[in-house]
Write a structure and sequence with these properties.
Helix content is about 50%, strand content about 5%. Helix 3 packs across helix 7.
Length: about 240
């Protein structure tokens, strides 16, 4: 498979966002909303990176890694230095500092390891409470409206479910409760907990109680596990 990247030379004729975009690709950092990075593979097997949303693409929040062998329990992790760069970046953001206390409280309330809640949130949104994915997942922990409905979140006159999910308090509670439920559903299988959080329980079931053969999900599990491992060593 060949790789197609936009040119990363910083010359006066290029807009500033283009140079920043390339720099972030090299560092494996998340991008601000004005230069988010999307990755997709065309019909010829060529991988493209673009700042324009792509329906079939994968939004890269904190770097990207090759797909791993499908349907295996041990999906491995990102290189430790890449995971540490991701953590250093997200921990410097105001979204993390502003919502750390709520994340810790929700983890304690629902009996979920705070390191897991933090790793998931870092990977999902880089602690951006206004984040909305191309699939419609919303907020800090990237909750789908359908998932929110399962936990009793409903629209009201003048306020939609999406608007509610952009409220950190609501989003964190739903996301952490969902992690707690998945942890009980897949005891001792953190890989399946994360795969189900990303792709849904149905996808895990259809894959034979294994990680689905989706590149996005495999990459997601790998990213979260890498960050989670580092956070566990801190405690």
């Amino acid at each position: 498979m060949s790789i197609e990247l936009i040119r990363c030379a910083h010359v006066p004729s290029q807009p500033l966002w283009r140079w920043v975009f390339c720099l972030a690709l090299g560092l494996g950092l998340a991008m601000p909303s004005l230069a988010q990075v999307w990755k997709y593979v065309d019909d010829q097997g060529v991988t493209h990176y673009t700042n324009q949303p792509v329906d079939k693409g994968l939004l890269i929040i904190a770097g990207d890694t090759p797909a791993v062998t499908p349907n295996v329990t041990d999906v491995g992790v990102l290189p430790e230095d890449q995971a540490r760069r991701t953590l250093n970046f997200v921990e410097s953001r105001s979204g993390y500092k502003d919502n750390q206390a709520q994340l810790m409280a929700a983890a304690q309330t629902h009996g979920v390891d705070y390191a897991l809640v933090k790793a998931v949130t870092a990977t999902e949104s880089a602690f951006n409470p206004q984040a909305v994915s191309h699939k419609g997942a919303v907020g800090l922990m990237q909750i789908m409206p359908a998932t929110a409905a399962q936990y009793g979140v409903r629209s009201e006159p003048g306020i939609s479910v999406v608007q509610k999910l952009k409220e950190p308090g609501i989003n964190i509670q739903i996301g952490t409760r969902h992690l707690a439920d998945l942890t009980r559903l897949y005891p001792g299988r953190m890989d399946l907990v994360l795969a189900a959080y990303n792709a849904g329980q149905g996808a895990v079931s259809r894959a034979g109680h294994q990680i689905p053969n989706y590149q996005e999900t495999q990459n997601y599990v790998r990213k979260v596990l890498a960050i989670y491992k580092i956070l566990q060593t801190r405690s």
